[in-house]
Amino acid sequence: MTYAAADLVQSVDWVALAPPTVVTVAALVLLVADLFVDERRKPLLGWGAVLATVLAGLSLLPLVGERRSTFCLVGDPGSCSYTADTFTLTVQLLVLGAALITALLSLTLVRDAKLPAGEYWFLLLASTAGAVLLPAARDLATLVIALEVASLPVFALLALRAGDRRGSEAALKFFLSSVAATAVTLMGVSLLYAATGSLHLNRVATGLEEVDPQLETLAAAGVVLTLVGFAFKTAVVPFHFWVPDTYVGAPVPVAAFLSVVGKAVGFVGLILVTLLAFPGHADTWAPAVAVLAALTMSVGNLAAMRQRAETRHSAVRLLAWSSVGQAGYLIVPLAAAGYMSGEEPLRVVGASLSYALMYAAVNLGAFAVATHVARSAPANRLTDYRGLYARNPPAALALGFFLLCLAGLPPGVIGLFAKVAVFGAAVDAGLGWLAVVMALNVVLGLVYYLRWTALLFQPAADPAADPAAGPEADPATRPASASGVRARTTTPLRGPTALAVALTACVAVVLSGLPQLALRFASTTLF
């Protein structure tokens, strides 16, 4: 199966392409504008990035309820490189929402850390553009390009702070793991092209069903290597080793972006290649994904349980391990889809999408509060959250609600419903053992989420008694309490950070009150 000259791409649907186009153009405009804007007006670039994400989100409205494709082959109109459907729009909304929250959190970071504004906003929007493009990709070349466009700018974002050794180390670890993932993915894609003669997902699926017996081993190797590459990006165990140190070394807003958008691109890539390109090889990848899901949620939750205030662990490191555990829940319906037939796989994977929407909102909210706390406690240890309610009730209540959502406890019922949808997908597929593993891991998650929540309402400790509290806990810089003891202080929750916390809290509250807004994807054919 080869491409003829007449099979070249044809007409361009700019309405379908509007979301990634708006973000890309805005990134270039802000980079050029930085050359002509004086220092006093640099903050306007940040608000320009915020506006760009909003406009890109609005460009999704004309596409709601439609299925539009572009860059299609002349000889085969069903083989297109870009398709805007329900799945695409939902993931694009998730990515743009995450980029909006990250931009709001970054406004203060860029100002206080004196980061180069033009470069920062260009890199953030460039990564967002790749992430927005990826769910619409329907050929392996576009998929890999979108994945790299989403990943490459993050290397620079991690290392943009001059003289930051931990940031440079985080960037190096992320770079090396990403390069390895890309190399493996490209090897897999090249083997698939050799076996099927095509890069379009639908043609790859057909080619794998009709592959020459002499090329069956080659095709199977291509399937495995491609899946391993995307597993790296999703931080699935055992390809998760880069996550904790990378998150801790990154600026907190960048860690928030990685935890949602970075995970989303790998997760979406896995969905596209397994369900659209490799459905005939489900007996190969479904058992593997099921085992990886069990390992990922178990390793992530067990490691998160080890992060304790008594040992002065980082709150961001706990969120990093939590995100690894949550990745395990995300891919459970994907494993279940491999054991189903007909249109059931396309519906059951909607449970993953429902869970991703919940996770994105509440995880970004938790990182938003962590960003706020980091302003007065740069070390961002769990001990810095002890007594947060007494110092800053809105921040403590918001963080407590986000943690309860992640744990799946009332009033954060959207977390409970999302977990039930994922659990039901495993049961419906006959994966009873995986459902049991998931239930045990939910209990493990309760331990560290509730332990952190309780910490928020405990009496504040004397920072002078904490030898590892760092210069931010110097008693000379702390106001005295009525008893004469110097108390840890927290700046008021205001400005763009307050807006980010409020937006994520509103989304979490609405989803908890109207869970059907997210859970409807669990019973919808997405493609």
TrEMBL record:
Residues 467-476 have a biased composition (Low complexity). It comes from the Bacteria. GO terms for biological process: ATP synthesis coupled electron transport. The chain crosses the membrane at residues 17-37, 44-64, 84-108, 120-137, 143-162, 174-195, 218-242, 254-278, 284-304, 316-340, 352-374, 395-418, 430-450, 498-519. NDH-1 is composed of 14 different subunits. Subunits NuoA, H, J, K, L, M, N constitute the membrane sector of the complex. HAMAP family: NDH1_NuoN_1 (MF_00445). NDH-1 shuttles electrons from NADH, via FMN and iron-sulfur (Fe-S) centers, to quinones in the respiratory chain. The immediate electron acceptor for the enzyme in this species is believed to be a menaquinone. Couples the redox reaction to proton translocation (for every two electrons transferred, four hydrogen ions are translocated across the cytoplasmic membrane), and thus conserves the redox energy in a proton gradient. This is NADH-quinone oxidoreductase subunit N. It comes from Streptomyces tardus.
